[in-house]
Amino acid sequence: MNQRTVKVTRMNITRRTFLCATAATATNALARPLQAAMSPPTLTARPGLADLGHPSGAKTPIWGYEAAAPGPTLRLKQGTRLIRKFINALPQPSTVHWHGIRIANAMDGVPDLTQPLVQPGGDFLYDFTVPDAGTFWYHPHNRTWEQLARGLYGALVVEEADPPAVDRDDVLLIDDWRLDDQGSLNEPTFGAISDWAHGGRLGNWVTINGRADYTATVKHNERLRLRLVNTANARIFTLGVKGLNGWVVALDGQPLAAPAPIELITLAPAQRADLIVDVTAETGGDAVLFATARDRHIVIGSLKVLNQQRPARLPAPAPLAPNPVPGLGDVKSARRVKLHMQGGAMGGMRRASFEGKQLSMRDLVARGRLWAFNGVTDMPKAPLVDARPGETIRLAMHNDTAWPHAMHLHGHHFREVKADDRLGPLRDTLLVARNKTAEIAFLADNPGKWLFHCHMVEHAASGMMTWINVAT
Ligand code: C2O
Ligand code: CU
To answer: Domain residues of the chain, as ranges?
Structure first.
């Protein structure tokens, strides 16, 4: 199936198909576990060719799930099981991480911490329940700085029992690739220390669902749910819409208490935003999704308005039903933990501990280690926090570097703790601005070893990585 076919199929999913799918799920409920045990569906990572819309006309050699970038959108109902036998047909070991899912630890896909690497030719059975409805995604967790950049990612959509009334439900995976003049991936700069010490690998080719010229056809006053996912290695997108009017209804898969009118949307690597928008552009016109770059707007997706869905806009949507995320304990009395984020270019880090030894910055650089948390580069032996189950943890992150970082906690969602202990929305990835401190609080209720790292994946690979233990 080529990219275009996948896209068209995805766009035709309407509320009606959701309803049919629900009925089918109910009747097949008994047959399913048996069937799954006999022959689990597979998800194969393998090399492929993608038409990213490069002007040379050349296809780009990529690595993708089912040889496509993005890989298949996996859709399932909240509370059901996702079962996939992952098959590694890549020339490198890999794993699959299900980003944002409050998952059983053994299914989290982190090499060494939660599972062994899946070697080329090997496989691993992922089998877990999805507790939360929302927009999630999956990607490798080995050499992510290379494997993600080569195209290994896909959307994981968990549908509400009672989804909001929309005419269409589209996933928009936003990526930026670093291509050379021939439209091939720029390979010599994989691992370039200059990228790693600065903002990470930034691309020069922005795509939505694998196309630089993403277009779709819509109708005037049609209501769309747009699930935006930033799958880039390191780029922070600031996005806006024109000819579309509506609300942000969820962030990182978790519904907002009240839909928020759309202004500009900042999406750090790995972050998601669910929008419910009405097409307000007139028939014959265009609605666009744009990214801001300095003071310019760059159109990254355009929606052609073919005709009219209905004469007037629908009324404002109700908030999405909250997910069953247990509430935080008292944040005032919560246990407090500090994270000192250090290193990178212009950061002033002099030394850090690597594999138990204190090394000078020069020796760290020689080992490809450029960043540190609390004076330690790379995964520390001891967890940053050893939490009792059900304990509320308050974590203050001081970004003592010249770069922003998108901090991601596995297996949990957290809230930002703002001034006067006001709590922000539930998230799994938070952008921490340079030279700023941000504090989060979470309920450590999911037993296991959970990675906590920067999602600018080059930063993670060169030191910005730690973990949290939640006792059983
Ligand atoms: Cu999306 Cu540890 O990753
Ligand atoms: Cu970072």
So the answer is: 61-308, 335-470
